[in-house]
Amino acid sequence: MNTATPEATGWTKTLVRHPLFLPVLTLLVLLLVNRAFNAHFFHIENKDGHLFGSLIDILNRASPLALVALGMTPVIATRGVDVSVGAVVAISAATAAVLIGGQMQIVNGVEVYVSNVPLPFAIAGALLVGLLCGLWNGALVAYVGMQPIIATLILMVAGRGIAQLLTAGQIITIYYQPYFFLGAGFLGGLPFALYIVAAVGIVLWFFTQRTALGLFVTAIGINPTASYFAGIKARAIMLCVYGFSGLMAGAAGLIISSNVKSADGNNAGLLMELDAILAVTLGGTSLAGGRFSLVGSLIGALIIQTLTYTTYSIGVPPEANLVVKAVVVFIVCVVQSEPMRKLILRDPSLQGVTR
Amino acid sequence: ADKLVLGFAQVGAESEWRTANTESIKSSAKEAGVDLKFSDAQQKQENQIKAIRSYIAQKVDVIAFSPVVESGWEPVLREAKAAKIPVILTDRAIKVSDDSLYTAFIGSDFLEEGRRGGRWLEDHYKGAQGPINIAELQGTVGSAPAIDRHNGLIEVIKSDDRFKIIASQSGDFTRAGGKQVMEAMLKSYGKQIQVVYSHNDDMAIGAIQAIEEAGLKPGKDIVIVSFDATKGGFQAMMAGKMNVSVECSPLLGPQLMETAKLVAAGKSVPKRIVTKETVFPMETAAAAFPSRKY
Amino acid sequence: MNKPSLTTRLTDPRTLPLLITLGLFLLMFGYGSVAYRGFFSAQVFCNLFIDNAFLLIVAIGMTFVVISGGIDLSVGGLVAVTTMISATLVQSHHWPIWVVTPLVLLLGALFGGFQGVLIQYFRLQPFIVTLGGLFLTRGLCFLINIESITIADPAYTAVSEFRLHLPGADISANVLIAAAVFIGAVWLAQYSEFGRVVYAIGGSERSAVLMGLPVARTKVMVYMLSGFCAALGGVTFTFYMLSGYGLHAQGMELDAIAATVIGGTLLTGGVGYVTGTLFGVLILGVIQTLITFDGTLSSWWTRIVIGALLCVFCVLQRLLDSHASKRRTSRAAVGKTVAPAVAAGDATPAEMVAQQH
Amino acid sequence: MNAAASDLPHQHTGEAILHMTGIEKRFPGVHALKHVEFRLFPGEIHTLMGQNGAGKSTLIKVLTGVHPADAGQIMFAGQTVKLDSPEAAEAAGIRTVYQEVNLCPNLSVAENIYIGRFPRKAGRIDWSTLHENARTLLATLSLDLDVTRALDAYPIAIQQMVAIARALSVDAQVLILDEPTSSLDEDEVQKLFTLLRQLKARGMAILFVTHFLEQTYAVSDRITVLRNGEREGEYLARDLPRLTLIHKMVGREIDPDQLAKPQWADAKPGDTFIGAQGISRRGSMQALDLDIRAGEVLGLGGLLGSGRTETARLLFGVDKCESGEMKVAGQNTRFTSPRDAIKAGIGYCPEDRKSEGIIADLSVRENIILALQARQGLFRYLPRKRQDAIANDYIQHLGIKTPHAEQPIGLLSGGNQQKALLARWLATDPKMLILDEPTRGIDMAAKLEIMDQVLALCRKGLAILFISSEMSEVVRVSHRIAVLRDRHKVGELPAGQTNEHAVFHMIAGGEQ
Ligand SMILES: Nc1ncnc2c1ncn2[C@@H]1O[C@H](COP(=O)(O)OP(=O)(O)OP(=O)(O)O)[C@@H](O)[C@H]1O
Ligand SMILES: Nc1ncnc2c1ncn2[C@@H]1O[C@H](COP(=O)(O)OP(=O)(O)OP(=O)(O)O)[C@@H](O)[C@H]1O
Ligand SMILES: [Mg+2]
Ligand SMILES: [Mg+2]
């Protein structure tokens, strides 16, 4: 029987009980698997001032997903979900592409690449569109009172249509060089996208630790009515939370379109919503709302990206990629599940195994 | 008399090539005075089947479509035949047991395109030492261009044992797909790859990005052979990042309208109508670019 | 005894969305008939069924899951893997249709049951489990074969090309299968204990447990049912396409959910009708038909229109719901006291009921 | 604490139908049942008594398989059984009405009664028979409902009756009712008791839980008292004086007469804090005048559904007034949300603690500081030290029983949750408190504590609106009493003239 308080038990148990234990363990295992197949896996080299290496690569590739997952975390904590992020990624990418312009011009026989509008406007425009999409979701959830999954399903269904409407069904190629810095540039040796993730992470951390946002979001997630009665501006907070999720999807759309140098209304951010929800869940935040972990979501995003990387690099045929992902999802979820935790923690013979 | 009504079921808008194709069909229909019923299947075969069935219900004069995949068309084409509506395939062929299910097929000869790509490679590596390692970026699995461009290449290089295809994967004809697959290939094979044989320009452009990001020079360290000769492809060639693009013209609108009118009038047309195409190596790219329409 | 009048029945927030869906369908069909030549015909109407039979079957399974308060994202993948397994067994191993079909149906049900077990016994979120299911099934397709496999088996071709001639229109074998599924589902939802327990679970799972209902078993069975329906959807899809392919039925889970919601089923569970889902599917079908008949609208309008419809429907449901809860607080419904309890004499209530029948 | 079987009083000579021995149950941080023994004989009504959190509901849930027991044995009808789910318990012949109304709001009344054992015809549910049976059954409870309507169309009290009807719909060997009467009015309680006596006469064994002493003595043959998860003892009802029973429950001496004494001799109300003029809302409240002064308790008298909760919701801004005027501290005010009311210095403990009060998974600390933090806003986050100080202060001050301030509040018993809610509002330093049924489902001792707190706060100058279904409690703490009937105010009893009789008289006033 263990009913004793955490202080009374050994540090291993405290460790095992920590909500981040499993996500971190999963990530470590994946990294070690990679190391086993590729001796240079942890190797990072410096090529003309840029750091190269598998780890950097994973971090870089994971950054759009990490952004979306960070945006999704507070939404899920308020007992919501935002399934529209993939579509919002496409919309924001389309906006950016349309604003920057899909045409190359030939001046005196030399190609020059010009942007329709100054770059900052294009970026702001795309972010604004993302934010608006998020606010639309938030308004439906908080003020109309729709269930989050439906409210965001609307945009999920319509969003790719809207993105294609913006681009008139074309895949718009972007030729404007400075724009590529967002998704493929390096700053101080590291991919620029990492700085964006870090900045967002720090802002979020500040808001959840140094303000009451974390408390309010958690309270709303657990009992919206009671939170409203306690005087929390539940609706305004929900609106902001969805708006933020949209904004993050917009940012991810920018990074993605800058990375592939085009905007494809049909395929940009495809299945991103599922990956993001998965990342948040793998990070230990329950879809039922309440307590959440930002670090967990980041780790979740890394797990997903590492997994993709692993399947490519250890020579699993890409067809099997999805199967591997599914199996990992099942295993992590089952191990994380309440009944399983109980089983593992209760049976002393198993404790050695989980440590 | 009434205008000719043509129902056209397009695959989708998955690449620049496809949008040029759509544009050509729409504008030539306008010019030819054809009432065009256009639908876009978003890359889903069931949507195409639905659209064709709806054209049958609408009693259009001619149905044309560009099949997503080769198989599975028999039941609905039989319905069209029963309704006595002639069917024209464009761009991609289908597999049916009964050839009379469609009247004509207008489109590129992908097999020939594949051969052209192969021949260009042989030319390029004349006198060079083997082995020459090729990484192939395939189109959508099961689609005719993917199958034929692959087979065309094999046909040419099988007699030459210097050439070896060391990796072959589908990038789904998309830019993102090409980039992702190329990254994976570079990870597993690295500098062994000498040639990238990409089934279309979009994937090739994705691959070029991946190669650059890996610190290599596309067009020099790795030779890039591609298909379609789209604007994007031309730009890559002019920038010296792509070596050759085998043309595959999407501008089959006029030919389609012409054929449709003949078919509707009950005249006989050749079963196979091949579009006129050529090969653009990077050296000729800059000269040809201004006259390109797609 | 007070019996509700027809009007209260019809304006009940639980049935009204169904009526609106029906009305909307008629409106759209009517619009098409007026606006486009050849639209108003029995065949166009029957084509809605021919072209959406598989979606209807899948959406019916989804309806049960949603009523139980869950969601099943794996159905699209399951349809694809069913076409794939069928095609492989038929083409490469020459198994006969009457062996393949039951086998894939069984596999579908088992897979659904597996998801149900994870959801019920490991307390995992349906969203996550079935998302994993989606990945798994799609992945399995490509493990089996990355190319599309054409079925040339005469039995499949025969079923595929079978047409029942009705006056003015033909219908396919798929339509007959879907009709049977529909009737079975209505029966299951309205006249079987299982169906009512599904509604109870959707209304309040905790209460259902405390009421001593077989919640665990029913929940697993709901996912089995959905898996079965998805597999059956896959079988009909195979007849429809005569091929197996890993990319078949992409995004069908979304269409199924959209059809369910447009049909008036609440995603929170507990409320919904199979008939509503039928009309939800028909509305999706009619939108597509309208767009092809028009022939100038780009396909992305389909998505935008469906999204807008979803939006309108959900706002409507919200309005009805808040209207209803206002009515609730006005307590119009509190019953009046009748005969005193003593009148029951010595018999227990249960016996009294028994005596009367 | 484990009395040997021979110590138990005997009246029935037959075998116990149910005998639970050595039952152990722990929840995280709580030892809910400590080696409990309990037995139930056919043909008796056996009342389980104990304070909040004593373990009554837990014992029942262990019996019916909602929670697995950690240890212990259950003998049912002479055999050791393992009931691992409510389903199994139902199948064995144990019918239970749980403490919270546990039915499905979306199903019809008839379905709620019969689901799990629908009448069938030709393999399908026979709807007409079902509805007929349901109507007949409800008639025995003197209810005439439209059985085809969804359950949530009916108020809580009716739902409670439907839950009871469900338990009666099949002849069981054992019937368990966990606080079935807490939302019923006197009339309904009497009807229920008549039925219970009939069932008892037919040899059914009935386990009954209530906090009301009157009810306990009205129907019980035997009483088992639980305290702190231990069985204090089993007694024949007629052999157990009330005072002794209370002593056994609380473990110390309480004078039940204390409950009845008005406490308002020394009241010195100040200025009017809130003055409402003709506030109303369609479908909820007819025009109502009300004023509450600082340093007084205004009681709301009325029967079930008379509109007391609605009044509270209007005053707190949960429901918006559609007409009328409201002055708070002399200023014209309009509340459009609870936030406005909180800013004006009002706090509200809602009637439905679980769904409107507590945030179950948050800790006691977080629950206590929540309203204060919400008022302070997002950015002026209370430092953790300050939070701890506030929480521990109130835990001590109000005597909230919890292992530590970080315990999730959902794991506390009802009374302690209520105290924590009180603490939540006190932390905001309010000028007025609205307490809707703060004593519902709470044991005697906790009731007294809460009422004492109310009085103490009032002396400190708070204005208090006090609502309770227990008229005696209202009379005890209130200075004045406003009486409601059918959603409008019928009158007011001024200070010094408050007594139960007067309240009832006023409620009945317009009748003849
Ligand atoms: N599911 C649970 N998880 C954790 N603790 C619980 C749970 N259920 C009850 N408890 C705790 O067990 C103890 C006994 O609670 P129980 O509900 O049995 O009391 P009770 O006698 O029914 O009280 P009341 O009169 O308030 O209904 C309390 O301390 C309560 O906090
Ligand atoms: N069917 C129902 N569904 C939801 N809430 C209901 C229902 N019926 C009544 N209520 C709510 O229950 C509460 C009690 O009603 P009301 O305020 O009229 O009575 P009251 O005088 O406070 O009596 P009591 O609190 O004893 O029930 C109200 O908030 C009312 O809105
Ligand atoms: Mg209790
Ligand atoms: Mg009340």
From TrEMBL, chain A:
It is a multi-pass membrane protein. Keywords: Cell membrane, Membrane, Sugar transport, Transmembrane, Transmembrane helix, Transport. One of its GO terms (molecular function) is transmembrane transporter activity. It holds the Pfam family BPD_transp_2. GO terms for cellular component: plasma membrane. It comes from the Bacteria. This is Simple sugar transport system permease protein.
UniProtKB/TrEMBL annotation, chain C:
InterPro entries: ABC_transp_permease (IPR001851). One of its GO terms (molecular function) is transmembrane transporter activity. The chain crosses the membrane at residues 16-36, 48-67, 73-90, 97-121, 127-146, 167-189, 220-242, 254-287, 299-320. It is found in: Cell membrane. The keyword Membrane applies. GO terms for cellular component: plasma membrane. It is a multi-pass membrane protein. Keywords: Cell membrane, Membrane, Sugar transport, Transmembrane, Transmembrane helix, Transport. The keyword Zinc does not apply. Pfam families: BPD_transp_2. This is Simple sugar transport system permease protein. The lineage of its organism: Bacteria, Pseudomonadati, Pseudomonadota, Betaproteobacteria, Neisseriales.
From TrEMBL, chain D:
It holds the Pfam family ABC_tran. The keyword Signal does not apply. The keyword Transport applies. Residues 18-253, 267-511 form the ABC transporter domain. Transmembrane segments: none annotated. One of its GO terms (molecular function) is ATP hydrolysis activity. Keywords: ATP-binding, Cell membrane, Membrane, Nucleotide-binding, Repeat, Sugar transport, Transport. CDD domains: ABC_Carb_Monos_I (cd03216), ABC_Carb_Monos_II (cd03215). PANTHER family: CARBOHYDRATE TRANSPORT ATP-BINDING PROTEIN MG119-RELATED, GALACTOFURANOSE TRANSPORTER ATP-BINDING PROTEIN YTFR. This is Simple sugar transport system ATP-binding protein.
